[in-house]
Design goal:
The protein is an alpha+beta fold and 209 residues long. Helices cover 19% and strands 19% of the residues. It has helices spanning 96-99, 125-131, 148-152, 165-182, 188-193, and strands spanning 15-19, 22-26, 65-69, 78-85, 89-93, 104-107, 111-117. A hairpin with a 2-residue loop joins strand 1 and strand 2 (22-26). The termini are far apart. The model has no long low-confidence stretch (mean pLDDT 82).
Length: 209
């Protein structure tokens, strides 16, 4: 007889068997544990219970405020905050003509906000929206050289990175408006050009930023 049950019918019941003086319930063959198990554990997707909450910027991180970068290639440089991006990312610039820092995204955790403010009047909002898009800072895929060409290129100097003309024009447009506003305030050029560093005996918790 087959052990399969029809849909809607009751599952097969177990039966009792006598073993000497005692009794024991014997499950139906369909209820017995499987003898075969997979050799490797099956991967199950992890349930994520946490919901992604929108990042709340600090009160001191106001567009136009001067920030000090604490990490990355330009650590110690002073930059101007242009715009807040999603997930706690900030869009900043040096400007490039003043201290060499281009339009760049930085994490809000790795900056110190100062009390110095710069007027952002004259900057094109469309340019900032274009720069703030997700795919703006993605690198272009390189075409890998293969075969004899790659072999003979091993000892040569690496080629210089070429900046895209669109990004260069956006940088010039933003810098032009910022430089006009910086000229109105005295000592702002020197302040942005100088790098921040701590020396022996400095107490950062007592400093006024």
């Amino acid at each position: 007889m087959s052990t399969k049950t029809k849909q809607g019918s009751e599952p097969p019941a177990s039966r009792t068997k006598k073993f000497g003086k005692g009794e024991r319930e014997v499950p139906h063959p369909s209820q017995k544990a499987k003898k075969f198990y997979p050799a490797e554990d099956e991967n199950k997707p992890k349930k994520v219970r946490k919901s992604i909450k929108p990042a709340r910027p600090r009160a001191s991180l106001v567009p136009g405020s001067v920030l000090i970068l604490l990490a990355g290639r330009f650590r110690g440089k002073r930059v101007i905050l242009l715009k807040h991006l999603p997930q706690g990312i900030l869009l900043v610039t040096g400007p490039f003509k003043v201290n060499g820092v281009p339009l760049r995204r930085v994490n809000a955790r790795y900056v110190i906000a100062t009390s110095v403010k710069v007027d952002l009047k004259g900057i094109d909002e469309k340019t900032l929206e274009k720069v703030g898009q997700e795919g703006y800072f993605t690198r272009e895929k390189k075409q890998d050289k293969s075969g004899e060409e790659a072999f003979f290129k091993q000892g040569e100097k690496p080629e210089k990175k070429k900046v895209a003309s669109a990004r260069a024009s956006d940088q010039k447009a933003v810098d032009k408006a910022l430089l006009a506003n910086l000229k109105k305030e005295s000592m702002l050029f020197e302040y942005l050009r100088s790098s921040f560093s701590l020396r022996k005996g400095d107490r950062p918790h007592e400093m006024k930023w």
